[in-house]
Structure formats: C-alpha cells, structure tokens
C-alpha cells in the first residue's frame, strides 16, 4: 500500500514540477512566420541566394547607427537569442548584419553597445569593410525592433536552480 501511494505521488509530482518550470520560461517577443528561417547572419552572408527574402528574428549588440535621407541603418553584431529572444551577449558572436529602418532613427534610442532584437525580411547583402577587412553584411528590412533595457535583461530569469553543495543567495 505504501509503495503504491509513493508511486502515485511521484507520478503526480513529475508533471506538476514540469508545468511549474515551464511557467517560469519567458515567452518570445516576436512570433515567427512560416517564412522565418533560423540561421545566423554569417550563414546568410556566405550563401544569400539560398535564403532569398526569408524572414528572420535576430539580435545582438548595436555597433552604430547611420542615418540617410529616407532611411536609417543600424549595424549589429549578432548573438544567439534566448527563449524570450534576448541576445546572449556572453556567447560567441554569429556575424554582423545591417538592420534597415524607414525614416530617421535616433542614435540615442539605439545606443552603441546596447542590445537589440529585430524581426524583419532579408533584403540581400552589401559588401563593405570592418576595419581593413572585407565583410559581407546581410541586409534586413525591419518590421519590428526592441532595444533591451537593463531591467528587461535581468528579469525573466528563473530563480529555480538545482545543485549539490552549499548555496549562496545573491
């Protein structure tokens, strides 16, 4: 009888724990379309013809903003995104891309060093230089963009952790 009760409790506890952990997971800010490809910018730069005008959701660290008479370009050093599409700037960079935005973009709103996530459509590539090195940038026509605040970057992380040993609360 006791073994049966213990088994029943374990079978009930496992799904409950899984549900509780899933509830802690942050949700993505942008919804992928059927046309969205999950490839890094460096892969698109190598074979742009393969991706055509696919949709992408990319993010990374803002390098600079350039304003032109009818549009602005935000150069971004790409990083992988987490489950809520926040750039993981402590990871390895995955290339650079240029986010093309209609109209004027205030560089104060897109500060160099800030983290951004964009959703948009691929629009070809452009060859330029990074320093003295030749570089191919994928161009993304931006539909939506989000510059992350420090509070947003630190919130949404699960406070649940597992381990053995002594724990320290920060």
From TrEMBL:
Pfam families in UniProt: Slp
Residues making up the signal peptide according to the UniProt record: 1-22
InterPro entries: OMP_Slp
GO cellular component: outer membrane
Keywords: Lipoprotein, Signal
Alphabetized PANTHER family for the sequence: OUTER MEMBRANE PROTEIN SLP (PTHR37530:SF1)
Protein name listed in UniProt: Outer membrane lipoprotein
Annotated organism of origin: Luteibacter rhizovicinus
């Amino acid at each position: 009888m006791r073994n049966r009760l213990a088994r029943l409790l374990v079978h009930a506890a496992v799904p409950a724990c899984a549900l509780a952990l899933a509830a802690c997971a942050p949700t993505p800010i942008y919804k992928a379309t059927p046309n969205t490809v999950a490839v890094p910018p460096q892969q698109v730069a190598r074979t742009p013809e393969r991706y055509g005008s696919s949709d992408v959701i990319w993010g990374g660290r803002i390098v600079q903003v350039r304003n032109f008479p009818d549009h602005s370009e935000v150069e971004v050093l790409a990083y992988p995104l987490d489950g809520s599409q926040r750039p993981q700037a402590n990871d390895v960079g995955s290339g650079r891309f240029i986010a093309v935005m209609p109209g004027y973009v205030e560089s104060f709103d897109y500060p160099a060093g800030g983290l951004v996530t964009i959703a948009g459509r691929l629009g070809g590539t452009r060859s330029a230089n990074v320093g003295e090195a030749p570089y191919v940038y994928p161009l993304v026509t931006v539909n939506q963009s989000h510059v992350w605040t420090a509070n947003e970057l630190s919130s949404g992380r699960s406070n649940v952790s597992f381990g053995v040993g002594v724990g320290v609360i920060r």
